[in-house]
Specification:
The protein is built from seven helices and seven strands. The protein is an alpha/beta fold and 206 residues long. The chain has one domain: Rossmann fold (3-Layer(aba) Sandwich). The longest helix has 13 residues. The N and C termini lie far apart (39 Å).
């Protein structure tokens, strides 16, 4: 399959509204609310709905995305709600990024729907920047969504399974806390739609 470019996403984000709304993901709220705020990387964070939510909770967040248009909207949004001082932006690819915050207590990766080899690279690269005792959290449209869910890609190659995500963390120093399918919902301009979601929460040993 052809590699998706930053130009492709820039064109999608070049609209007045937020492509995925400003509403934070419900699973990010559920799994990250209990964590003590510190430093976080939101990998492929797009327009920053989850980054800004984390900043409101007290985190210092670095949104890393390869779309300059998305990051500009994120920075403007952070300024609008008064958390710009806690929101960093880095233009970079998810598989080769060099973060401004080298060590973080939370690595977040939300809906990076990319082929398995690329997703594995992104997860492992993000994991290297999580401190001992810190957490990695991810949420994706699941492969099971093809049969019973709304929205998301229809290509199984970019839809991870529970087994794939667990294998991606093998040998990386993490204990998997949760890796499971959830009946979720995705935010659209028409409201919430049902979706089958896979979530991953892992804690780095040490």
């Amino acid at each position: 399959m052809a590699k998706v470019t930053s130009d492709y996403w820039d064109k999608k984000y070049e609209i007045e509204d937020f492509l995925y709304t400003k509403v934070e993901n419900r699973f990010v709220v559920e799994y990250c609310s209990p964590l003590k705020p510190g430093r976080a990387i939101d990998l492929a964070g797009g327009e920053g709905r989850n980054s800004v939510w984390l900043a409101k909770q007290g985190w210092t967040v670095e949104n890393i995305d390869f779309s300059p248009v998305a990051l500009r909207k994120y920075s403007d949004y952070a300024s609008e709600v008064g958390v710009a001082s806690k929101c960093l932006a880095t233009v970079a690819d998810a598989t080769s990024f060099v973060p401004q915050q080298d060590q973080v207590e939370l690595g977040l990766i939300g809906y990076l729907q990319t082929p398995g080899s690329e997703l594995k690279k992104a997860i492992r690269r993000l994991g290297k920047h999580v401190v001992a005792g810190g957490h990695l959290f991810g949420v994706w449209h699941a492969r099971a969504n093809l049969a019973g869910g709304f929205g998301g890609p229809r290509d199984p190659r970019v839809l991870p399974t529970v087994g794939f995500l667990k294998r991606a963390l093998w040998g990386q120093g993490f204990d998997v806390v949760v890796c499971t399918l959830r009946d979720g919902q995705i935010q659209t301009k028409e409201g919430l739609k049902p979706s089958i979601t896979v979530v991953l929460l892992a804690r780095k040993r040490g």
